[in-house]
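User: quick one, fold this
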Amino acid sequence: MSQSYSAPRLLKALAAKHSSDVFVPECKNGPTQQGSHRRLDAWVLLKTWSPVTTIGYEVKVSRSDWRRDEKLGEYAGLCHLLYIVAPKGIVPIEEVPIGVGLMELVGDGNRLVTRHKAVRREIELPSMLMVYVLMCRVRIERERSDGETSDREWRLRGFREWIARKDERRELHYAISEKIRDRFDQQEREINRLTDKLQALERVERRLAEMGFDSNSPFRFWEVDGRIAKLGRVISPHLLTEIDRVVERLQQTRVALTDLRSEKAPTEDIE
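Assistant:
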């Protein structure tokens, strides 16, 4: 019975599920002229801002169709959630890649059941896909006279707001980068200050080594303190005063000897 479910029937069930959302079947991520573009069987933008959420759907209608798929991983960057949609029994849960969800069409073929929930990925909204949707799949309508906007106008407004937020994020990135640069400059100045301090300490260490202190000894600081204390015990607190007195006495003695020599000089001339 599952083999009778066609791809259009699965897409119809998806469209009904997302009747209140932005539903784009056969959605490409760029112009047809680009040979490398990708195409999702369906792409959905949920009508919510908390958070903005996009869903990608890949439809599989047979086991051979599922086994031939080699591009599923390339859709990961196009949506926050990625689901495989298939008739019941076509894709076993154990074969579903990690992070990808699985929905099955059951009953009368009009009801979708989530068998395996997809894991949300935080992505940068694909700008080329958004441009493709606006350019090729949307018709912009005038605002209604009663003040309410049409569904398509809502899409355009949402896209404009997304562009504005993207510019805000870019400005925030620049602000953060500037803050990082300021922080880096501050750290560089601190490193230079510490380098100068280290060089000064190295000069002190060399002077201590010249004075006979072993800089490699773990007790060198105790050794310095000990020598200073020893010098303090040897030198009298009044030593400088005593030295000044000795210098003064020597000067007085020198004057007296000079005078004495002057007084003896004439006697030596008479003789």
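User: anything notable?
Assistant: Residues 5 and 109 are 7 Å apart (CA to CA).
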